[in-house]
Every structure is written in C-alpha cells, then in structure tokens.
Amino acid sequence: MDLKGVHFLLTYRCDSECDHCFVWGSPSATGVMKFKDILTILSEAKKLNTVDYISVEGGEPFLFYPIAMKTMREAVKLGFRVELLSNCYWATSVEDAVEWLLPVAETGNTELSLSTDLFHADSWEMEEFRNAVKAAKKLGISVAILSVKYPRSKVPCPSEIEGTEVGLSELMYRGRATSKLLEKADKKSWTELTECPYEDLANPERVHVDPYGHVHVCQGISIGNALQQPFSKIIKTYDPFSHPIISRLVKGGPVSLVKEFDLSHGMLYADGCHLCYDCRLLLRNQFPNALAPEQMYGEGER
Ligand code: SF4
Prior knowledge:
Layout: E1 5-9, H1 35-48, E2 53-57, H2 65-77, E3 81-86, H3 94-107, E4 110-115, H4 127-139, E5 142-148, E6 160-161, E7 164-169, H5 177-180, E8 188-189, E9 206-209, E10 214-218, E11 221-225, H6 231-236, H7 246-261, E12 268-269, H8 272-283
Parallel strand pairs: 1-2, 1-9, 2-3, 3-4, 4-5, 5-7
Antiparallel strand pairs: 6-7, 8-12, 9-10, 10-11
C-alpha cells in the first residue's frame, strides 16, 4: 500500500448530530483517542516513509482541543503536513476565533478544512463559519471549505465564500444518511452498483484510525487494530484479496457482497455506499473484527 495520509478520528463525539454523518457523530457518542496512542501511531506512520500528511478530525476534534493541538504540533514536528477539520462551533466572533486558531497558526504547516452546508445549519454560510474563515485569514492559515450536496435543495451552494472556493462533495449514503435521508434520494437498480464509487480499496492512499485502534480503509471496514499490532505492520502486510469484505468489493463492488454471501436485498438503492452499508450491517455478526466498531454502525442509535 502506497499510503500518503493517516486520518485520526480523534473522537466520535460531536456537538452536532447531522443527518449525513457517516461516523454517527453526536453529543452522546463515545470514544476518544488517548494521546499516548496517537504518539505511537504517528511514529509508526513516520517509519513507513510514504506518509506525507496527517488529518485530525472526528466527530468534532475541537471538543478535545488540547489533544487536537498537541497532535497537530507533534505531527508537524515529525515533518508531516497537517489538516485539521472542524464544523466551527467555537467561532462565536472573529476576535474569539483568532484566539482559538493562534496555536494552529503557530505550527506553520496546518490547513484548516471547515464544514458548512445545509446539514450543519439552515443556510450554506452560518455565522460561526464566516467568523472562522475571517480569523484564519487574519492569521495566514490556509483554509479549505467542505460542503456536501443537499438533496433537492432549492438554494444553490455558493461557488465561493469569503474569497475561497467551496469544495462541494456528493452526499454518500452510509452511516446516519441511510436512516435519515433515503426518502429524498433518487434511486438506481442494485445491479448497477458494481464498483466502489469513492475509495481505491486495492491500493488506498489514506486510512482512518479511530479511538479503539481500528484502521479503516472506508469508515467501518477495518484492516487491523493499531492498539494490538504495529500500525506500520498493518499497512505493510495489507492484502485486499485476503480480506473477507474488501476482496469482494474490489472484485465487483457492492453487488459482489450480495452475490457471494447470498444476502437478501431490495431492488433500488441511492448509491453504491447504500448497498454496501446495508450488506455490511447483515454481515457484522459474521465478521466482527473486519466490520467495526459498533459506533460506525449506529448501534445504540438505530
Ligand atoms: S461502496 Fe462501500 S467501501 Fe466504497 S466508499 Fe461506499 S461504503 Fe465505502
């Protein structure tokens, strides 16, 4: 695996509970990374000699602000470029947002990725978001804007906000979106869903690591546990064709999961992720280590 990025899911907890969240983030979600585990995984990532960036995300990483800042500083010290994701709940004014972002500016090698869309608020540009962008610009921090398409929205997403281009992504029907947003989705026949639309599962360039050590190639599909064996070993020995779920997805997308495990299914699905996620829910008991943890499957909330 030619790994370029390691995404730390610092926590599953979030101040918000968005309908499209594929990690089921919420104020009651459990799971927070410990800093000693972060340090171990950072040094393991360094050993690989292929990783050039670290992403600090969640949930909402600013809920565990000192640990998010420490992670960012350690990563920069090790020579990684850092991305820090947030929904900007903390940016109550430009002046206060500057205070929150000073430690980010001081690293000199961190990009802020800020979310704003109709899942996070009633408008595409909520006030906290604008405050955060203005504060970041004052401090010379580079900013990327992340928005997700909202089904059947009558108000179009702006192409730029505060002079920065908006990166508009497709809505992916996995996680909470499969229980909240299906009614609004256009559907297609399940037989068309013969490939994974978003991830290069045969040769992933990034993985996510969560508070329980799971190393995910897509959220909820684990290839090993970095708290039980060295992260570098998990990456170096990755074999998509020996993994019970990934081998099928690589061969023929979500349709292969249905066929090879003889799973019951509907006729119409919102996208490949929707069929993939439904199949994984049916296979969770059979493959508890590969399809983990329960947070990714909304257990406790469904
Ligand atoms: S099809 Fe499955 S593996 Fe691919 S991006 Fe969607 S949920 Fe992830």
